[in-house]
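Contributing new records

If you add data, match the layout below exactly. Sequence lines come first and carry their own label; structure lines follow with theirs. Keep one chain per record. Anything else will be rejected by the validation script.
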Amino acid sequence: MSRQAKPGSKPYRAQLRDRLTALGFPEEALPAQVAKNLILECRIPPRTAWRLASELSLDVAAHQYNAVTGDPRAGMRGTRIWEYEQWPERGVRPTVAALRVLAQVYGTSWKCLLGLRDLEQLPAKDLAEYHAEPEPTAVVAPEPEAPPARTLVRAEGRPEEEIGTGALDDAILLTKTNVDDVQLDDLWADLDFLGGAYTRTAPDSILGQLTVIADRTFALLKGRQRPKQTQDLLLIGAKSSAMMAWIAGDLGRYRRSRELNTAAWLYTQYADDFLARRWVRTSQARVAFWAGNGIESAKLAADGLNYHVGGRLTDAPLILAEARGWSSVQAERQVLDAIARWTAIEDPDLAAGGEDSFFNITKDRRHYMAGTSLLSVGQASAALREFTTAREAFEKLSLENRWEAMDPMIRIDMGRAHLRLDDLEGAAAQVEPLLTAGVGKQPDMVRAMLKLMATELSGPRWRSATTARNLAEALLDAHASARP
């Protein structure tokens, strides 16, 4: 294989097909051979391998699934097929009936869509059905709603000089484009600027400017570009949508966030780019957590780590998002494992934002995320150390690189850590300066944390303490005034 082709990627599969064809394999045998190679050589799970070998995107596979069942409205979606492909580590276990339909779509047997790990997790009834089935035989998949196949037309009767007429004109069409490098550079520069400006600019303003970029990108994609330019536009669409989802989540607009992240993921599917998938998984994990779906957040973050991109987007944000997701259900083992993995790679000298100032979070935010995860599983002393490091890192940042929401977030969670250590005075010392100065307009998560600390102070442990009651009332007042 060429060095330029990542194992399992579309170029890799194209090269593999060429090699198989050169070895004399007929066209109809290629998908099975490609799937076999993807499973054995690239370690791609069987269901994903067969879909890629069939050169189907998730959405097209879902469309053909619905057509095979005879009901285009059957409801199969690309996201559900993706969930089937993630099982058994995560996702959803496919039923035998669903596997049989997918096998028809991919032109194979349903047994070929199951690996050893799948078989180990199958219910006894399904495993018995698996063993009762004859050995796999090739199944020819129908082509529902596919365009008519091209047929060879004899050129008899056509003057020789007419053969090939117009071929050059047709080829020249491929050079026509509605975008140039200057436009692409401008779009990327605008995204980079807005990513850096988010920490010091009103979220609604950034969201509005990102919407302009997204609309402009979509309008360009409706026209004709060279393939590389189309991929650039798809990547811009993915990043702008993921950034918009992130910011909409900060504003508490979680339904819109989910829609934007879905759009971003669709862009990444067509761009076929690992870095873009990391952007989107980072945004999805963040939005899912603050929307109250901690386990989903952890699984999305863990999946994002599967897309290796070197140093362009570090593992730290995703590992810490995974820890934070598991912390929401007090899964101490998973949290401590993730924190240990992060500690092993943490670079204290990583500049503000690293190579990507939006998705690569700063040192203060990394240590803050670690602290919140530790606090949620009862590790109050360790959490307090992380919060202290976070505060020191925050104060060392230049004003333009500070995310102002970090100050109240660190203070509130340091206060909560002191409460866990039975130190009410220490908790008051952390949050009283914040309450005295006024919290101002804050992202939705700051409001949620103000309310959480007020609730903890109103619990049985502190209910009788006058200081706790007064502090809880002040926190609830701040919560009411902090709406963005």
